[in-house]
Design the sequence.
């Protein structure tokens, strides 16, 4: 019986220690000497290097405006999503270099990079971006082709004779 009481006392003491333990330190903004936040975004085979700084909302991708580089409105909408979710539309200028993959993967990579850079610039923006799933890297990539197969999984046409 005494052992049980001792373990309950230990449990109560551990609970009291946890209650008085300091909360984790708040995240610090990470900016370079020019006041920019940098992050790398990835999607499929595309990799985007993204810098954000306070500005008028101008987005530059590989030296071109967003409208010139991503001509499809859907891709432009993808790039604007992190700003609208975080509630900072038109407050940051974006400079991104992106390589690899196609336009859709590149747009997803820039979106991922913008999201990561926003939460590094201002850690208070992390909860809405995290809730929307913008900080998670979409790990889906093209499956490799296997030998003896026409594609990754498709077999050659079967011939009975």
Sequence:
């Amino acid at each position: 019986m005494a052992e049980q009481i001792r373990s309950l006392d230990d449990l109560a003491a551990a609970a009291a220690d946890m209650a008085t333990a300091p909360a984790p330190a708040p995240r610090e903004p990470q900016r370079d000497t020019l006041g920019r936040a940098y992050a790398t975004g990835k999607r499929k085979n595309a990799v985007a290097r993204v810098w954000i700084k306070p500005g008028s909302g101008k987005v530059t991708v590989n030296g071109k405006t967003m409208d010139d580089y991503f001509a499809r409105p859907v891709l432009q909408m993808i790039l604007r999503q992190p700003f609208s979710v975080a509630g900072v539309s038109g407050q940051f200028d974006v400079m991104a270099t992106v390589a690899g993959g196609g336009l859709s993967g590149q747009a997803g990579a820039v979106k991922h990079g913008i999201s990561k850079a926003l939460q590094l610039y201002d850690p208070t923006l992390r909860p809405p971006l995290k809730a929307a799933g913008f900080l998670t890297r979409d790990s889906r990539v093209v499956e490799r082709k296997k030998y003896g197969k026409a594609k990754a999984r498709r077999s050659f046409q079967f011939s009975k004779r």
